[in-house]
Each structure stands twice: as structure tokens, then as C-alpha cells.
Structure prediction request, 434 residues.
Amino acid sequence: MSNIKYFSGIENMPTPLLRMDSLINRLIDGKNTIYMVYRSMIHSLSQKVAGLCEEKGFYVHFCNMSDIDEKPRQYFLKLTNITNDSLLETVPVNKILSSPDCPNIIFLHGVEDIDSDNRKLWISFLNEWLRHSKNYGCHGGDKRALLLLMEDTSFLAQICGEPGWDVNWYWNWISNTETSMVLLCLLLGNHSTERWKPWLEAILSELAGPDLNLLEWLCQFSTQMTDRDTIEKLLCKYANEKGFLPEAAKVDLKKYRGMAETDDSAPPENLYRLWEMGIVNYTQEEGLFFNSAFLAATGDITTIQHRLWRGMTRYLLPIIDQARISLCTALNRRYMGEWKAHCKREKEYDEKRYGNSCVGLEDDRESSFTELRGLLNFLGQKGYAYVSSRYSRLYDEVKRLKDSRNVLAHGGLLDREGFMETLEAGLYVQRCNL
Prediction:
């Protein structure tokens, strides 16, 4: 089970707001809804949704089934102040629905915590409610709706035996961008991680994806995360703490490869159990998202490496390219025609060797831009590479940028030191005043 502590922090972010708004509209429209959600989120989610419904003028009521001593019908009769009927056990649901004291929306949870006999009574009552409520609003009465919040997927088939339930899932609720925002909050003011903050910003949101628990846990051990090997060991430790290891031994991830057609609103039925354990979810960036700790436990290092690489490239490549553009601009300003002639030769070399120029999106009509290799060649020709030169550091930092870019361009990874040195090199080159 995923124990997401930060729902109160993410509830006002765009994607969760969109999901909640969709849920509220269905409830207001009288659709009886089952929402499959992690148990630790039930209180926060129901409070937030109820508050938004009440703002719209709807009367809501909360019911924890495990706290109810009487039978379901008796409970609802008492709720709606129907007490003077001589045969309370036979009062039809439509009389409850038509009561002016019946809430517009009733939040139910705790179905997993009641015994099987009591559960059968509840399911029977809920089925009767479904049969009557779907036509109730059509006859001019205020629409009524149930919202049943539950985590245990094994009860889903039992409860959905009667048609009329609208089933929704905590699935595709958090984007990597929103995870990054939570990460910034976790890192803010944490002096132990201040030095490595860019490194952590680059990799942690990619590793954690929608699992904010894993995100927080990794932040606690962030000083130990120096390279891929140390990260894998930490992920395996988390998997062991969460009880993922027995499941990891049984699951063949190969059959889930390439499931791009997976519904972005609900998990496939064969993944219900893994969803319930917090092992699988969905993100817009990656589609079907298996928890990184679970992948480490299965030995799937390729996906973990790709997530690390994706975070590093997203963070570093724009900085490296901005450094290149800034230095090209500075050299063009200082050397003018000589620099432009060099850029032209580099471009001709690229076209001869590769069939096209490697220069990016810049307007190269004046031939004032070149790649990092071309920059190094020019700096070497002008004597910047010599130790005695006051610009020798500039040459070294451009070389570092070139080497790091080549590693990333071929799918390789940098360790923490290499990442931070590349970042510092990029910022130095950008600020360098020739």
C-alpha cells in the first residue's frame, strides 16, 4: 500500500485539481462512484472533495462502514429521519432518496474492514440504491450520489455486480513536473542537501515519479547518492522495507514492455494487485510507471539508468548549450572576422564528414556559431590551452562540457561529482568575460 503523506500539498496542483473537478461533476450529476484510492489518502481526498461540493451548495455526509453498528437500511433511515414507519426493515430506498433530509452526496469508506456477513448486507443495500437512484433525479427530485472510497481491489468485482457504478482510480494523478515541485519543498531549507541540490533536483523526481513516499525517503538518504550503484542499493533497501521483494520474484516485467496503449484513467486488470501495493501507476511523461525501487529489486537496471539519464540531460544540456552560445557570442565580439572564418571552416568540415552542419537552432548566416569541438579548436589555436594563459581554465571548462555532453549524448551517466563539475563549468563559461 502506498502511504502518500503529501496529498494536502499536491491537492492544489493542476492535475489533481483536474481529477477532483471531474469527480465532483460526476457526483453533482448523480453518478454513484467508486473511487479506488490508497487508504492513507481517503481522509484528505474526501475532505477536499466534500469542501468543494459544499461550496457549490450541496449537502454531504461521511460514513465509515466499520463504525456502524446497525444494518445499512436502519442507518440510512436514521440519517434521513424516517422513524415513524411501522415496518422500518421494509422501507424502500426510494423513500430514503425522496426524504428532504437525505444528503446530496454520501461518502462511504471502510468496506474492507467489515466482516463478510455485514459486507453482504451493505452490498445488497447499495445495489438497491443503484436501481432506484439512477431514475430518481429524472423525476424532478434533487440528485443523490454515493462516493465509495476503497483500496482493496479484491472487493471490486463483488461490489460492481449491479450495473450503475462509475469506477475511477487514483491513476495518472501526478506528473513529474508536480513531483518536482514537491521535491523543491522537501529540499528547501535542508542544509545537509544544499551542496547537492542541483544533482537531487535532476534525478529524484525522475526516480520517484508519482510515488511521493519514495521521494521523501530518498531525500533522507540523499548524501549517500553518489552514483548509479549507490542509488540502486538505496532503491533495493526501500523495496525491502515496503515488502516488494516477494512480488518482484514473481513478476515478469517483459510482458508489460511496450504497453503504450494502457488506459491513462485506470490500470489494466492484471495490474490491480501491483497498483494496490503502490508498485505501478501512470504518468504522462512515461506512461505505465513501475516504481523504481521495485525495478531495482527485479534487477531492471536499464529503466533506472534511463530515468537517471533523462533527469541529467533535462538539467544539464540546456546549461551546456547556453554556455556554448554565450562563448560563441563573446568570441565573435572579440575576434570578429577571424572567428567567423573559423566557424565557416568548422561548418564545412561537418558537412564534409557528416553530410550536415552540427550547429543547432541558431541563425548561422553570419557563421558566428560552432559546436564545442570547434570552440576548443579555436581556443587552442589562440593559446588558451596553455597553463600560463589567464584563460587556461576557460579551455579546461569547455573541454569538460564537451566530454560530459558526449557521455550524455551516447546514453551514459555522470556520477555526482561529474554532474556538479559540469554544472559549475557551464555557469563559469556563461559568465566568462573575454
Summary: The first strand starts at residue 33 and ends at 36.
